[in-house]
Amino acid sequence: MKILFLDQSGKLGGAELCLLDIAKPYRDRCLVALLADGPFRDLLEQHKIPVQVLSSEAIQVRKDSSWQQGFGSLAQLLPLITKVVQLSRDYDLIYANTQKALVVGALAALISRRPLVYHLHDILSSDHFSSMNRRLAVTLANCFASLVIANSEASKTAFIAAGGRADLIQVIYNGFEPQTYQSSSADAVQLKQQLGLEGFVVGHFSRLSPWKGQHVLLEALAHCPDDVTALFVGDALFGEHQYVEQLHQQVNALGLEKRVRFLGFRSDVVTLMKLCDLIAHTSTAPEPFGRVIVEAMLCGKPVVAAKSGGAVELITPEVDGWLASPGNSHQLAAVINLCRNQPERSSAIAHQAQIQASQRFDLASINQQIAQLLGQTLARVSQV
Ligand code: UDP
Ligand code: GLC
To answer: Is ligand 1 within 6 A of the CB of residue 234?
Structure first.
């Protein structure tokens, strides 16, 4: 099966890292077409996955855009749709991995008469999207997609609640290669020294954005003993500079200068996770899936996540991790203190999580599930 993957971003977000893994088995019979250039293109090239950037300009529609702004971007979309129609002639199926890719992919699929698959990485609720965006995504998926793959039950439920067809959608979690997470702990010890980190380190791995809730961990830190430090890994990928400024002000206001480090975007997430004593996920809006939660588990590290969205499907509290109410810094601090004071209990839980996560999210079997669904979809569509 030859697949034309479409993604709107050149940046390294979770949806793009997930697509990288999905495209790997198809590298000799696929093309990843990007609607914007960026480091994602380099990463695909490093993995020898054919990639083409279709536009040098980002499409001017945001998650909170109105219908008027949406229509305004049509002029930008038409040349993209034409390109995708031309490209799709060499492929059996169009696989849209993001919302803007869905817009382009849906119209291209209609013209080129190719089946469309939409991989839904988002929770289509008012926490994340304007009503125009929700209506557009659901209508296009309902009318043009032959299959929607949701990254969690939470994303599936929100899709249906927004009017999406329940018969179209199947949940497939993100897959991970467990061996990627088996790096030596000696490297982590060395990196911890190089970074000058001491004490009990709580890691936060996420782009800097208000809804990812880095401020909640800073608040929690103020309720923890002085030997607890926080390491923030990730950058403001979508221009959230005001939030970054606020975080730095919060560090100063709480007198946490010596206990907080911001490292920006890093590609050595595994080694960094391994030097942490606990990984915190603090999203204040429901997280659609939350790759970092599974990555922490695969690294054998205890993890606490915000009790909402996909995170609830990933963690059984006290069995393979902890959950804290979103935005509740007191609950988060209580888990941090528990892990600091009971290292044996927290490593036992982390060990349990590592075993379960390597089975539940094994990339080979996830990719097999996707291949099966795509095969069935293609067979069904070609019978019509
Ligand atoms: N990540 C990374 N470097 C960083 C911060 C994050 O490679 O500095 C990766 C992280 O390991 C994870 C992804 O970015 O695989 C973020 O995905 P997630 O699903 O957690 O959140 P998203 O940002 O997609 O909402
Ligand atoms: C999106 C979601 C994130 C999810 C990722 C991969 O970026 O925000 O929660 O883990 O896609 O599906």
So the answer is: yes
pLDDT of the chain along its 384 residues, tens only? Answer: 999 999 999 999 999 999 999 999 999 999 999 999 999 999 999 999 999 999 756 555 566 666 566 556 677 788 999 999 999 999 999 999 999 999 999 999 999 999 999 999 999 999 989 999 999 999 999 999 999 999 999 999 999 999 999 999 999 999 999 999 987 789 999 999 999 999 999 999 999 999 999 999 999 999 999 999 999 999 998 889 999 999 999 999 999 999 999 999 999 999 999 999 999 999 999 999 999 999 999 999 999 999 999 999 999 999 999 999 999 999 999 999 999 999 999 999 999 999 999 999 999 999 999 999 999 999 999 887
**Ligand nearest, relative to CA of residue 298:** 1
Q: How far is the CA of 94 from the centre of ligand 2 (A)?
A: 20
Query: Which positions ≥6 away from 224 have C-beta within 8 Å?
Result: 333, 336, 337, 340
Residue nearest to atom 7 of ligand 1 (CA): 267
Q: Residue 321 has what DSSP assignment?
A: B
Q: State whether the beta carbon of 270 lies less than 6 angstroms from ligand 1.
A: no
Helix (H, G, I), strand (E, B) or coil at 119: strand
Rounded to whole angstroms, the Cα distance separating 344 from 303 reads 14
Rounded to whole angstroms, how far apart are CA atoms 83 and 116? 16
Does the CB atom of residue 212 touch ligand 2 within 6 A?
Answer: no
Q: How far is the CA of 235 from the centre of ligand 1 (A)?
A: 10
Which atom number of ligand 1 is nearest to the Cα of residue 13? 24
